[in-house]
TrEMBL record:
Residues of the signal peptide: 1-17
Keyword Signal listed: yes
Key words, A-Z: Signal
Organism ancestry: Eukaryota, Fungi, Dikarya, Basidiomycota, Agaricomycotina
Name of the protein described by the UniProt record: Cupredoxin
PANTHER family: CUPREDOXIN, SERINE-RICH PROTEIN, PUTATIVE-RELATED-RELATED
Ranges for region Disordered: 140-163, 323-352
Keyword Signal tagged: yes
Biased composition (Low complexity): 141-155, 327-352
Amino acid sequence: MSLALALTLSLIPFASAATFDVSVGAGGELAYNPQFVHAAVGDVINFVFHPKNHTVTQSSFDTPCVPLHGGQNSGFMPVAAETTALPNFQFSVTSPDPTWFYCQQTNHCGRGMVFAVNPPAEPNPHSFKAFQDRAIANNGTAAPSASSAASSTATDTYITPPTPEWQTATATITMPSSTWTTIYTSYAGAAAPTPALQPSDHKIIVGADGQLTYSPANISASVGDTVTFEFRSKNHTVTQSSFLNPCLSQAETSLGTQIGFDSGFQPVSAGATSFPTFQIKINDTVPIWGYCRQGDHCVKGMVFSINAVESGPNNSAAFQKLAQRNGTSSPSSAGSGTPTSSSGSSSPSNAAVSISPIRGIGSVLALTATVFMML
Ligand SMILES: *[C@@H]1O[C@H](CO)[C@@H](O)[C@H](O)[C@H]1NC(C)=O
Ligand SMILES: *[C@@H]1O[C@H](CO)[C@@H](O)[C@H](O)[C@H]1NC(C)=O
Ligand SMILES: *[C@@H]1O[C@H](CO)[C@@H](O)[C@H](O)[C@H]1NC(C)=O
Ligand SMILES: *[C@@H]1O[C@H](CO)[C@@H](O)[C@H](O)[C@H]1NC(C)=O
Ligand SMILES: *[C@@H]1O[C@H](CO)[C@@H](O)[C@H](O)[C@H]1NC(C)=O
Ligand SMILES: *[C@@H]1O[C@H](CO)[C@@H](O)[C@H](O)[C@H]1NC(C)=O
Ligand SMILES: *[C@@H]1O[C@H](CO)[C@@H](O)[C@H](O)[C@H]1NC(C)=O
């Protein structure tokens, strides 16, 4: 280093501090220009806000799009399109270390609208480029929201992403029926599997009065009890299924060896006086779910349950509702009377709303989301 340069550098702090002008969103671009500066302690960064509604918000390198606790923040600076007196915000450099900034307006950070003071030069894992990449990686695909639409104008130069993220969340509601196993060893909320002192037989009438019903359609039975199904009309079955796939036999859905019980078709002629029966033995207190395999009987609600936990989301009414949709849960109608918000709208502004039922409904929908996680 030449003596002259060394002298010059050492004199700078004593000379007047430099001011760097940085334009924010000039030309409608989601960018600071320049994107970074190298400044000395005492220098001032003068951010000049162009039309639209940006911020200059300090963050950390690690979380580019999250405000730094105790950091600087211009707040939102809405600027009308025809404004000539542009507002500004000044940041005084107090440290030679890198300082990181971003725009807090929805989606801007994820589109790379970030800024830095004194970032290490490339190649470096903490370079400006690395910071910007991190912003896009962390926040680039997420966070659709109402305000993104509001803040976007015809002057925007970026392309709106075609797929709002919440559609992915919706997709998780559809369960792959073929991968669910119905084998249990225990069941939360169920009674302890203590055998009844006096095993009893429970009778369920199948197709009473020509109806597509089991009556009763939900019973409690103790370990050691038996349940006898009596077929009174038409041509029904008693087929074990699972809560999540009410209208598919366990043979079709189970990953394991358990295929469940199935009475097979039991045709009953119109004037019959004796009726075929089918009996099962209750081996534990695990809920048992079943349906009639004939035609569309199941989707017409011809299902039954034994030892369903009526106080929980997997109750007999929820099971029947699921059957009536043939196992395809939809956010608005799942559950056991839990009020649910309608959530099918494709408007990005409803994104947050459409996700919330997954957590909030506490019923069939919540359960299907859980199952997806488990698969
Ligand atoms: C970026 O993502 C983080 C983590 O999901 C979130 O907390 C933050 O609010 C997001 N920032 C912006 C500007 O969207
Ligand atoms: C600026 O953006 C913020 C955040 O999106 C919003 O709350 C505010 O209303 C906007 N201001 C104007 C004038 O559009
Ligand atoms: C409901 O049933 C599913 C599958 O049969 C199970 O994974 C889930 O834990 C059950 N939920 C409750 C609250 O018991
Ligand atoms: C009972 O239903 C099954 C399935 O639909 C059919 O294959 C069978 O022929 C029916 N039996 C009588 C006696 O109608
Ligand atoms: C109970 O166990 C017996 C003997 O293993 C079996 O045949 C029967 O299907 C079981 N009952 C149920 C409801 O799974
Ligand atoms: C119910 O859904 C299953 C699997 O998606 C399908 O195979 C079956 O035909 C459906 N049954 C009715 C009655 O729609
Ligand atoms: C369950 O049983 C009760 C009492 O027998 C009955 O009122 C109710 O309708 C049944 N629920 C379903 C879904 O069948």
